[in-house]
Amino acid sequence: MEEKRTIRFEVLRFRPEQDEEPVWQTYDVPCRPDWVVLDAINYIKDEIDPTLSHRWSCRMGVCGSCGMMVNGTPKLTCSAFVRDYPDPIRVAPLSNFPIVRDLVVDLESFIEKLERVKPWIIRRAEKDPALGEYLQSPEDLSNFKQYSMCINCMLCYAACPVLLHEPEFLGPAALALAFRYNQDSRDEGERQRLGVLNSPEGIWSCSYANECSEVCPKGVDPAAAIQKQKLLGFLQWARVVAPRGGA
Amino acid sequence: MEVIRHDVVLVGGGGAGLRAAIAVAEADPELTVACLSKVYPMRSHTVSAEGGAAAVAREDDSPELHAYDTVRGSDYLADQDAVELFVEEAPIELTRLEHWGCPWSREEDGRIAVRAFGGMSVERTWFAADKTGFHMLHSLFQTSLKYENIVRLDETFVTRLLVEDGRVRGVVALDLRTGSARAVLGRAVVLATGGAGRIFPFTTNAAIKTGDGMALAYRAGVPLKDMEFVQYHPTGLPGTGILITEASRGEGGVLLNANGERYLERYVPNKMELGPRDMLARAAILEFQAERGFKGTYGPYVHLDLTHLGEAKIDERLPFVRELAIHYVGIDPVKEPIPVRPVVHYMMGGIDTDGNGATELPGLYAAGECASVSINGANRLGSNSLSECLVFGARAGRAAAAFAREVDDRNEPAVPEQARDEEGRIEALRGKSGGERIVDLRREMTSAMERGCGVFREEDEARHTLQTVAQLKGRYTDLGLEDRSRVFNTEIVSALELGHMLDVAEAVALAALERKESRGSHTRTDFPARDDENFLKHTLVRFAPQGPKLDDKPVTITRWQPEERKY
Ligand SMILES: Cc1cc2nc3c(=O)[nH]c(=O)nc-3n(C[C@H](O)[C@H](O)[C@H](O)COP(=O)(O)OP(=O)(O)OC[C@H]3O[C@@H](n4cnc5c(N)ncnc54)[C@H](O)[C@@H]3O)c2cc1C
Ligand code: FES
CB–CB of A151 and B92 under 8 A? Predict the structure, then answer.
């Protein structure tokens, strides 16, 4: 077995019942060379300090639980390898969210934003499943597939410069999901999403910094989704709203 | 203590739970359903499922054939009436999910595509590339948001069922945000809490799969069924246990030993890589015993070779496999074979239910991996489980809604006291002094389970494991906890989960000890043959204060008489 190496971890702690503000705490962790940052955090929790709180579950980069700031960058800690970082490794809760405790942040605002963009198939008339599937060609599928890959890990929210100043901004993940449904050949709900997408918290707040797409661990490219939606939104607004407004 | 009341209380926000929630919501818009989950629903373990979901889709297939494959795969321990319901309703349920936006992979003509899977005699596994569970779960979660009568209580950990006068009355749960216990009362309760792979040291399962719902039902007097049947998946990554989906074999991948042989020739010559999982897992262990495995840091392994599929097909059909292999073992499957070994994957056993998810306890229902209906018997076929979550999640939801509409008896004077007792039990854990550490007990439990309840089992080891687990339960009472705070105290959660796992582990060990035959995933080296005369029956384990008690129950056979299971 390869040698373990002791790595220093500086972890941001915040226990609302006792701490006025977050403080850094240092742990020395004997790490295997193939460990991810999450392995080290779990080691701390199990062996050194059971009072440390964090979220994790799948440890394979798909449940979206384990996002944290690692040396200042939002990362899935189950896919961030300790060998890729210089000593010490600094781990903090995701930026742009209130801290609940230690590495756990408050995600309620995201859940509300998600609901607001109506991320479900909207049809004028529903088809009975006994009558079979809606046909959808591989090309139709590829129109939205990429944007359906979001695991809601919130790395893009932690990276977004707009959210830093405008916490009401719907944000990259929710907007990319709205676009995903708008692009789905089975969906007829584009009009119903128009209002919220064009609202002050919607697509027009995005400054196209592209940080979201750079940190996305699943290649979703929310920045592109927002830009495309802006174009579509504009065309649609011109088509749907403008003529009526002018009549 | 806060008391909330809803018509139906649902525990679990995975595939089965969300499907059940929508079924209740649609059954009657007047009913409200509280959906409690210890993690945000889209974090549930269903998200990790890769390969696909089975349902008849093509002209060369039929419900009878799907049923027969399932029954044969189960080594004749499945209840055939349940299997018949399952195969009839699976296609409708998967189509419904298509209507709800699931991005199933497609044929050129726009129809759903299907792929081959182990133990299935024709192609009938629907898939969304190799992230099927992820797409199913997010489609369900996002769809569930449109129902106003689904009230979610996220990050709420259920610790006890409230029972009075022979009926379930609700649950007690710990709100992780505040650290307070609350009683959530309802006329029907549905458990959809998933599996328990974490009772073993090496598993594909996420950290949250700790058998909570099984333990909750068991403690409330409902028996656990067929717990000895633990599925090992033949292809997990050494070290982490991360799954490499069976779809990689469905798409043409082959297994090779250290001599470069397709060793399955010796074990399942007619099915080879598409043989059922129990047989493939045993084959790998036998290769290791014969010194024909590769040797690695984390023990012996074999190779899963996909290189001949080519980059284009791998990227279209198995992109996640490629991502996982590159990431976690540094191997690009386009260029090199992937190291794999058998790994604990799935619990065939669970809470004993009928085809509507109903348990022995009136008002209590269960569905998904925590339940044993049983369509899986002694060995589940890959891709049946996601479909099972939908079919039986929906059935349990509808049955719970009907039950909640029928009964309206709020005469439950003992419930508040039970709830306060439970609050006291949780409070006593906070910063509790004691000499034992969670991590030590967990480690000893998992290694005992691997020794006595692994792929190959025998009397003495199984007995030893049972005794070890019983001792660990004793030591559990002396657990020491350091975290005294309330807000997001995950140490308390770990302690409660460990308690649940010990109950489940004990049931598994007892059932494994007492089934003195080999059937499906349960292989006794001291009883190598299947014994229909004495053991064509379900094992039941019942809770008793002095230790678990064994019981049994007949298997329902409708059309397919047991025959030798050969592939
Ligand atoms: C890696 C992997 C790949 C798989 N691939 C496939 C596949 O391709 N095809 C297939 O058919 N099957 C597959 N399976 C099996 C299948 O994914 C699972 O059996 C199925 O998803 C289980 O779903 P569930 O809804 O029963 O439970 P889960 O998805 O595990 O959900 C359980 C829910 O219960 C909640 N919960 C648990 N305990 C508590 C508690 N105490 N209080 C409150 N809430 C609680 C959790 O928060 C969660 O929301 C795979 C399994 C694994 C491990
Ligand atoms: S633990 Fe699931 S994404 Fe990291």
Answer: no
Residues on chain A touching B493 (C-beta within 8 angstroms): none
- pLDDT per residue as tens, chain B (567 positions): 999 999 999 999 999 999 999 999 999 999 999 999 999 999 999 999 999 999 999 999 999 999 999 999 999 999 999 999 999 999 999 999 999 999 999 999 999 999 999 999 999 999 999 999 999 999 999 999 999 999 999 999 999 999 999 999 999 999 999 999 999 999 999 999 999 999 999 999 999 999 999 999 999 999 999 999 999 999 999 999 999 999 999 999 999 999 999 999 999 999 999 999 999 999 999 999 999 999 999 999 999 999 999 999 999 999 999 999 999 999 999 999 999 999 999 999 999 999 999 999 999 999 999 999 999 999 999 999 999 999 999 999 999 999 999 987 778 999 999 999 999 999 999 989 999 999 999 999 999 999 999 999 999 999 999 999 999 999 999 999 999 999 999 999 999 999 999 999 999 999 999 999 999 999 999 999 999 999 999 999 999 999 999 999 999 999 999 999 988
pTM of the model: 0.97
Domain boundary among A105, A122, A152: A105
A152 lines ligand 2 (CB under 6 A): no
B249 is catalytic: yes
Contacts of B13 in chain A (CB under 8 A): none
Chain A neighbors of B111, CB-CB under 8 A: 133, 135
- Does A71 lie in the same domain as A88? yes
A48 and A131 in a single domain? The answer is: no
| B270 CA from centroid of ligand 1 (Å) | 32
**A191 occurs within a structural domain:** yes
Tell me, yes or no, whether A145 lies in a domain: yes
Q: Does A99 share its domain with A112?
A: no
- Which range of residues forms the domain containing residue A205? 108-241
**Shortest CB distance from B95 goes to which of A118, A132, A152?**
A132
DSSP for chain A? -PPPEEEEEEEEE--TTT-SS-EEEEEEEEE-TT-BHHHHHHHIIIII-TT-------SSS-S---EEEETTEEEEGGG-BGGGSPSSEEEEPPTTS-EEETTEE--HHHHHHHHHT--S---SSPPPGGG-PPP--HHHHHHHGGGG------HHHHH-HHHHH-TTS--HHHHHHHHHHHH-TT---HHHHHHHHTSTTSGGG-----HHHHH-TT---HHHHHHHHHHHHHHHIIIIIHHHHH-
Q: Distance from the CA of B346 to the center of ligand 1, in angstroms?
A: 9
For ligand 1, say whether the CB of B50 is within 6 Å of any of its atoms: yes
Spelled out in words, what is the top-level CATH class assigned to the domain B234-343? alpha beta
Chain B nearest CA to A119, separation (Å) = 6
| CATH of span B16-173+181-186+194-229+348-394+415-550 | 3.50.50.60
